[in-house]
Amino acid sequence: MKAIKILHMYADMLDLYGDGGNMEILKYRCEKRGIGCEIEHYSAGTAMPDFSSYDLIYIGGGADLEQQHISDDLLKCRDGIVNAYKSGTFLFLICGGYQLMGKYYKDADGNKIPGLGLFDYYTVAPESRRMRCIGNIVIRTRITGEPVDVVGFENHGGQTHDVRTPFGEVVVGNGNCSGSSAEGYFEKNVIATYLHGPCLAKNPEISDYMIGYCLERAGATEKPAPLDDTLEKKCREVMLERLTRK
Ligand code: GLN
User: Fold this and answer.
1) Alpha-carbon distances of 41 from 19, 59, 90, 110, rounded to whole Å
2) CA pair distance 234, 246, nearest whole angstrom
3) Which of 73, 86, 52 is nearest to 10 (CA)?
4) Which atom of ligand 1 approaches the CA of 94 most closely?
5) How far is CA 163 from the centre of its chain?
6) pLDDT at 2
7) What is the dihedral of CA 212, 215, 217, 218, to 10 degrees?
8) Is omega for the bond preceding 198 within 30 degrees of 0, making it cis?
9) pLDDT of 15-34, one tens digit each?
10) pTM score above 0.85
11) For 80, which DSSP code?
12) Pairwise CA distance, residues 173 & 183, whole Å
């Protein structure tokens, strides 16, 4: 494979809590293995890209206002993103980006921001702005076939309903809805999650799942070579200790 090609959408508008850092981590983990990683950007008003030419499309999280600002533009990208997803491009979506791939996001003021309707879920924020899901979160995901405890930080008003295939089960925190047991959305080529952090920093298995997916799609028969993740895993262990082992 020449290089993994990534399209990072709306980095200027949807970048809460350093979500853009996820791209640096993916690039770092590719390059450590001698795999090229090219990251291109798309923002409202720039030339419409060929979405299907990318191995992975990434959208971060954002406040309600930013989600409203990009909404019209995102709808213009709908066909391109749908075709890319159907042809196997990986979608990695954080919080606001996750919400906008569903049917809609209704914010605390009752404004309904249409989603691309790629997936069946929908999101509604409570009328009270005080009722937000905020704090550190631990979820257990099994996307690698083994249970992996993933740590991150969530801050969302939106409550996401009708998720058929969650990314993980909630160990600590809220997840898709206040007090829910499920977090995020998952398909073979989709990871959508409320976890900021940026979440890849302390959870190397998620990066490697996506890198492995892109390599396999390009015809590779071997999994990505292991890296020394001692530091990353130690950082995660500190958080797990703090949050789960009282
Ligand atoms: N504005 C959305 C909400 O509050 C998404 C927030 C986010 O991306 N962190 O639910």
Assistant:
1) 14, 10, 16, 31
2) 18
3) 73
4) 8
5) 15
6) 80
7) 180
8) yes
9) 999 999 999 999 999 999 99
10) yes
11) H
12) 10
